[in-house]
Design brief:
The protein has eight helices and 13 strands. Helix 1 crosses helix 2. It folds into two domains: 169 residues, Gcn5-related N-acetyltransferase (GNAT) (Aminopeptidase), CATH 3.40.630.30; 91 residues, no CATH class. It is an alpha+beta fold. Strand 9 and strand 10 form a beta hairpin. The two termini are 28 Å apart. The strands form three sheets. Strands 1-2-3-4-5-7-6 form a seven-stranded mixed sheet, with helices on both faces.
């Protein structure tokens, strides 16, 4: 647990109202979840967790609800956000781990959530730290969005499935994972895109849709937010080309089983793999 941080399931009405102002950090003022909806989440089978610092200031919020689709019962995590100063800490993972403990106690064994596939921090937390699996790509899921984090790009999303009681998840959560990777491992993987540096940003020079290997990687930029602010056209190019790669290989039976960082060139890589992903 992050030092001096407590994660609690809120119940009193004033705390719910306080969370409306907290959400504006992420969503602006137009797209927040109203406090009465959060109350309904909490009271009608869902979960609302808040992380508080030592001054009882909210620094993180997670909310979701139980759902049923295609014959499966699962918990859908609708929102998980922490203040910017906590975004590169363990807190985003710890909030989901707190949900996992609660759900397992309720005999719910699967959680799902959506991430922006070009957000390296969400991808790294969801897949590398927690053991989630990328299963499905959803093009422009919400339509065009107005909030600061999503403005400028179509709202593509990657569906993450988290098998709460699987052997793989247990192993990831039971050991401290290294942030850095073995350079040789990454160098040995096939690449689905060829990257060049163009001024301050990287661009995709070429990409492959004909790979037929057990495992390959897809590079994404670490600085998509800077791209959006300084040269939106490059960010749009990344969205459109990586979309083709994600959609093509996920339809062909690949799953995204890992996300790795390479400190040598400040890069982030999705690892696609062909394997039997039935529950273990």
């Amino acid at each position: 647990m992050e030092q001096n941080i407590k994660i609690v399931r809120v119940t009193d009405r004033e705390s719910f109202k306080q969370l409306e102002a907290f959400q504006t950090v992420f969503l602006g003022r137009g797209d927040i979840i109203p406090y009465h909806v959060l109350i309904a989440f909490q009271e009608m089978g869902g979960i609302v967790l808040v992380a508080y610092d030592q001054n009882n200031r909210p620094v993180g919020l997670l909310c979701g609800y139980n759902s049923f689709k295609n014959g499966e019962l699962f918990h859908y995590i609708h929102f998980c956000g922490v203040l910017p100063e906590y975004s590169d800490t363990e807190l985003p993972a710890e909030m989901r781990i707190a949900v996992r403990k609660y759900l397992l106690g309720e005999n719910i064994n699967q959680a799902v959530w959506l991430i922006d596939p070009l957000n390296p921090f969400e991808a790294y937390t969801s897949i590398h730290k927690l053991g989630g699996i990328g299963r499905e790509y959803m093009r422009n899921f919400y339509g065009l969005m107005r909030d600061p984090q999503n403005r400028g790009l179509e709202s593509d999303r990657l569906l993450i499935r988290w098998e709460l009681d699987s052997k793989e998840v247990e192993e990831k959560l039971s050991k401290k994972l290294e942030d850095e990777i073995d350079d040789a491992y990454l160098d040995d993987l096939e690449r689905s895109n060829v990257i060049v540096r163009d001024g301050p940003f990287k661009r995709i020079l070429d990409y492959k849709l004909n790979l037929n290997v057990e495992k390959f990687c897809l590079e994404i930029p670490m600085n998509i937010e800077s791209m959006k602010k300084r040269d939106l056209s490059i960010a749009i190019e990344w969205r459109e080309i990586t979309r083709r790669i994600f959609e093509h290989y996920l339809r062909r039976g690949y799953f995204i089983t890992e996300v790795l960082k390479d400190s040598r060139n400040d890069s982030c890589y999705y690892i696609f793999e062909k394997k039997d992903m039935r529950r273990s």
